[in-house]
Specification:
The complex is a heterodimer of chains A (370) and B (340).
Chain A lengths: L9 H14 L6 E7 H9 L10 E8 L1 H4 L2 H12 L4 E5 L13 H6 L4 E4 L2 H10 L5 E7 L4 H14 L4 E7 L2 H10 L8 E4 L2 H6 L5 H7 L3 E3 L4 H17 L4 E3 L11 H10 E3 L2 E4 L3 E4 L3 E3 L8 H4 L15 H5 L31 H14 L1
Parallel strand pairs in A: 1-2, 1-7, 3-4, 3-5, 5-6, 7-8, 8-9
Antiparallel strand pairs in A: 10-13, 11-12
Chain B lengths: L18 H15 L2 H4 L13 E9 L5 E2 L2 E2 H14 L4 E12 L4 H18 L2 E10 L7 E11 L15 E4 L5 H7 L19 H10 L5 E3 L5 H13 L2 E5 L7 H10 L13 E4 L1 H12 L8 E7 L6 E4 L5 E3 L13
Parallel strand pairs in B: 4-5, 9-12
Antiparallel strand pairs in B: 1-6, 2-3, 4-6, 7-10, 7-11, 8-10, 9-11, 12-13
Helix pairs in contact in B: 1-4, 3-4, 6-9
Classes of the chains: A alpha/beta (370), B alpha+beta (340).
Chain lengths: 370, 340
């Protein structure tokens, strides 16, 4: 497959692996946090750790939108569909996440709730057009990557005068999470970052420069293909060896320093910052999430369907929060692979294909067993 | 008055046991599926049995959409069950077909399905010798559900079973994976995309017979339908209490299938097939078996894709094209597209 196979080439991988082995200094242990679940997924799906020397370690970051969504928000979506009897449209990953009382949207659907899996915001709009007698709520989650399409859907709904479409907005901002991670009291020992890939196509690589400077950590914007991950790792090692704490961009085929201005304009036209928002694992982070602007409030599901979920604590023993902060690895969790499996997930990190636990379990659990 | 197939619809009377049902059976089902046993007109079909061992397999078909590139529920209902019988090394002989129809379903579409079923049965050399029809109210079905059961005879000396994989055995696949699932996905509502991929739906007993002739001691045969290659190999690993080591570079995947999966965030290893089989045999027999497969039109792209290994965890693992190693797990729930 052209434009894909080139980035999964074994000969290239071996060449980069040799360069990493050559340049990684034996006296140094390199701890690199791959920010996104997409990276984690690539690392395990393609077996990247097998090509790394022992002193290069990947630490999984919080960049999995399903994983960082607090359970309370899922419960609120559940209330919308069950109490207010709306049609709830959601991306597939969200369907199996256990909510409060360990009930998922898939179970709610089996109990009669009208939950529909969609592939895009346009599918949700179509459902609203096709069911003028029903209220349709789009469960919007994700970082900056999925935010512009939600903005487009809201603008379309306004132009068309759709009265039965609204958005339950849970869009999050990546740089805020990066700052929170680095500011945390129990800071994780991370030498550098493999920075977001798809998110950076929107916000641009320059968005990370303040963090590299303030916290003295190199950040390499890294694509999601396995060769991207390897090349970025090599770049990060070189920056660390040279003591240069700057942002470099490996993913130049898609990311520019300034990002996608049009998408940014669209986002700021429709959304504004929330004062604060709770992230699972990272807690309350100021100015880290978006809500609909006043001009679009008629499409805000939170205004249309008042819901109030009880705060929910994680299942006892679930280490998702520490894993999301990079402080623990999935195998460190007592529930991992025993009571918590993809078939019976205790926490969202085991559900989402971008979750660290799911990636470990599905692709790499022989590493723990060995 | 004759059944109005052109513009008529299934109604509740077609399942009531009265004249309307008799007419539907006579003018639609029996007309196309005709054979001497069906013609007996009894509730059950009486047929002679061969000496030796027989295999019986049953398969319910609930596919959406009912018509897809490369087939429809009618042909699929024949192939699915014929293949289940053939995977025991048996020669399929007879099928039963039980239809659950939804009130309001167009008779013209039903006829297309039954004709396609008759065609598939004819080319597979099997007869549908008994059947049943029920009608459910509108909204309580999905157009047409078909359950078929098949029987076949196993040649003497053939002993093919999922628990016979042995450490050191070779693992073969008869061709490219994921074609059926991608063809179906391309026609699903909300997901329609342009593709030239057709379902691989096909009856595999001819291929299986040639393989058995070349290598009578095939250890396992299985068609990787739902859950795809990954799930079927996990089943076999558990059943035989062994591990599996795959080589990703050797697994045939059509570029269009790989591209569609890439776009949707799916893994071809987990996508359904309806015309492929996995074979496990001793390493010594592997090349022989491979050439027998490649000599058959349904096995032209056959490949040796892995080895049976010792593993107390019964994992399926794979050396990736990239050069690393990963687990190929059972599928948890449905394969879901990624968000980011």
């Amino acid at each position: 497959m052209k434009y894909i196979d080139e980035f999964r080439d074994q000969a290239q991988a071996k060449a980069i692996a040799a360069a990493i082995a050559r340049e990684a200094r034996p006296e140094h242990h390199y701890r690199l946090m791959e920010f996104c679940g997409g990276h984690t997924h690539a690392i395990f799906r393609y077996g990247v750790p097998d090509l790394m020397p022992d002193n290069v370690e990947f630490v999984h970051g919080p960049g999995c939108p399903v994983c960082v969504l607090p359970i309370g928000r899922l419960d609120e979506a559940m209330q919308m569909v069950e109490k207010h009897e709306v049609i709830l449209c959601t991306y597939g990953d969200m369907m199996r996440v256990p909510g409060g009382k360990r009930r998922s949207l898939m179970q709610a659907k089996a109990d009669g709730a009208d939950v529909r899996m969609v592939y895009s915001t346009q599918d949700a709009l179509k459902i609203a057009r096709d069911h003028p007698d029903k209220q349709v709520v789009f469960f919007a989650i994700g970082f900056e990557t999925t935010t512009p399409p939600t903005a487009v859907a809201i603008k379309h709904a306004k132009q068309e005068g759709l009265k039965n479409f609204s958005v339950f907005c849970n869009h999050l901002l990546t740089p805020a999470a990066l700052g929170a991670l680095l500011d945390a009291e129990t800071q994780v020992a991370i030498d550098g970052f493999l920075g977001p890939s798809h998110v950076s196509t929107i916000i641009g690589s320059a968005a990370y420069e303040p963090f590299a400077q303030k916290y003295n950590k190199p950040i390499v914007i890294a694509g999601f293909e396995p060769l991207d991950v390897m090349q970025s790792t090599l770049m990060a090692i070189r920056l660390l060896n040279d003591g240069r704490n700057i942002v470099e961009n490996e993913y130049t085929r898609a990311v520019t320093p300034e990002g996608n201005r049009k998408a940014q304009a669209l986002m700021s036209e429709v959304f504004e910052l929330r004062d604060t928002f709770e992230w699972r694992g990272l807690g309350l982070i100021p100015e880290s999430a978006l809500k609909l602007r006043h001009e679009f409030s008629e499409f805000d599901a939170e205004m249309r369907f008042p819901v109030q979920a009880q705060p929910v604590t994680d299942v006892k023993g679930c280490e998702c929060p520490a894993i999301l902060r990079g402080q623990k690895k999935p195998q460190d969790c007592k529930l991992f692979g025993t009571v918590c499996t993809p078939e019976n997930p205790m926490g969202s990190c085991m559900v989402s294909s971008e979750g660290a636990c799911a990636a470990h379990w599905s692709y790499g659990r022989f590493r723990g067993a060995a | 008055m004759k059944l109005n197939i052109k513009s008529g619809k299934v109604d509740m009377s077609h399942g009531s046991g009265g004249r309307a049902m008799m007419q539907l059976i006579k003018e639609l089902f029996a007309k196309h599926l005709d054979n001497e046993y069906l013609r007996q007109g009894n509730d059950g079909a009486c047929f002679p049995v061969a000496a030796g061992r027989m295999v019986m397999a049953s398969d319910g078909h609930v596919i959406s959409p009912l018509f897809f590139p490369g087939g429809d529920i009618g042909s699929l209902a024949v192939h699915g069950t014929v293949n289940d019988v053939a995977m025991s090394g048996a020669k399929p002989l007879y099928l039963s077909a039980s239809f659950i129809l939804e009130e309001g379903y167009p008779l013209a579409d039903l006829e297309r399905i039954v004709m396609s079923m008759a065609e598939a049965a004819k080319s597979a050399g099997v007869s549908v010798i008994t059947g049943d029809t029920k009608v459910v109210e509108q909204g309580k079905g999905d157009g047409v559900f078909i359950t078929t059961t098949g029987v076949g005879t196993v040649p003497a000396g053939v002993n093919i079973s999922g628990e016979r994989a042995q450490v050191g055995d070779a693992i073969l696949i008869s061709g490219s994976i994921g074609d059926h699932g991608v063809a179906i996905l391309s026609k699903r509502e909300n997901l329609e995309f342009e593709t030239t991929i057709e379902s691989d739906s096909a009856a595999l007993h001819g291929l299986a017979a040639n393989m058995i002739q070349a290598v009578p001691d095939i250890h396992c045969l299985r068609d990787p339908t739902r859950g795809g290659l990954a799930t079927t190999l996990n089943e076999l690993a558990q059943q035989s209490a062994v591990g599996v080591q795959l080589n990703e570079s050797a697994i045939p995947v059509k570029p269009q299938v790989a591209a569609a999966c890439e776009l949707l965030g799916l893994d071809p290893l987990y996508i359904a097939n309806e015309g492929k089989l996995i074979a496990i045999c001793s390493q010594a027999d592997a090349e022989n078996l491979l050439s027998a497969m490649r000599d058959h039109p349904l096995g032209k792209e056959a490949a040796i894709i892995g080895t049976v290994v010792e593993d107390t965890h019964h994992l399926v693992q794979m050396e990736t094209r990239f050069g690393g190693q990963r687990v190929v797990d059972f599928l948890a729930g449905e394969q879901l597209p990624r968000i980011c």
